[in-house]
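Re: Re: ligand-bound prediction request (bumping)

Still looking for help on this. To restate: I need the protein modeled with magnesium ion bound, output as structure tokens. Inputs repeated here so nobody has to scroll up.
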Amino acid sequence: MHIERIDTFPLFYRLPKPYGDANGIKKYRVCYLIRITSSEGIEGWGECADWLPTLHLGFQERIIPYLLGKSVYERKKIVTTVHKWHSRAAAAVDMALTELAAKRAGLTVCELWGGAYRESVPVYASFQSYSEDPEWPKQSLLAVEEAAKDGFTRMKLKIGGKSISDDQKHINKVQGLLEQKVELALDANQSYDLPAAMEWNALLNAWPNIMWLEEPLEVKHVAEYALLRSRMCVPLAGGENVKASVDYIPILTEHAFDFLTPDPMHMESLDDYRHSLQLARDFGLRATPHDYDGVLARLYSLFAQACLPPWSKMESNSIEPVEWDVMDNPFTSLIPVSPCQGEVRIPQGAGIGVEIDLDMLQHYRWDGNSY
Ligand code: MG
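Reply:
Sorry for the wait, this slipped through. Here it is.
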């Protein structure tokens, strides 16, 4: 079975109300999907994330000509080559060839990977807490209230983009609203140094519902993380931009984090992504995937989490949650999979087990202009 056709779907959505985090305010959301069709007429979908003009040119000029006629079963060799040219594009090719192999064998992706430990995986509602509006805390509280009504039992809010006192006021209000019935993660996007991060310790110590504090320091400061971890009263999480599982080794051997947060679209390959999850287990740690920019990638994170051995023998708490974007982003609806009471049931059909909304692909197709 060889690769006969590749279609690309660059998608663009301008946000009517921009939002953001400590890294800045986002004015748009993008998504890049590919569909590989085999000589037997089987289709496999993939997703990657980057600047659309770069991705699109890379696929049209170099990656598609290279892929045409290749065997569907040479996934590792193909992905390694594409990764050398365009690391981000490789993720899409990897997913599409994985799905093709699974469908050809009549298997789900989880079955292809050796089978799932569980039928559903928890997710957490992920927010971008800031906007350009001076009333951003009010808007954030409304969004949090909405997610709680939707049944989310875990949430992640942003800190680090405003003064510590403004952020603490905001999170205090959120805690008051939720009455600490929802588990919370706080993500500082590498905004602090160690003393600034420690300014959160007393508050965090008073809250029993904190899942983790994410990337309070620059991730390259591994020794500072180890020191912070020994002083901080809550677990530390990080590593969403790590590109290869081997790069987690210093973090693991220096005991810098409690949770690894790999992203399937940022890593060398799906195999390497799954290896990083297993590496966390091998070092006695937890892993909660970063999936902010992905919809199909998020589904692959759910598959990988379903196939990951439990971190705990406690039945209700045996697997770590996957990030679930709850902001204004139409691309999160491209795949008909949504959480119920904070859990997502793993689709059971061959391949990814669900159909992508083709009408949406037409509607949001990027017009090719710079943005
Ligand atoms: Mg983060």
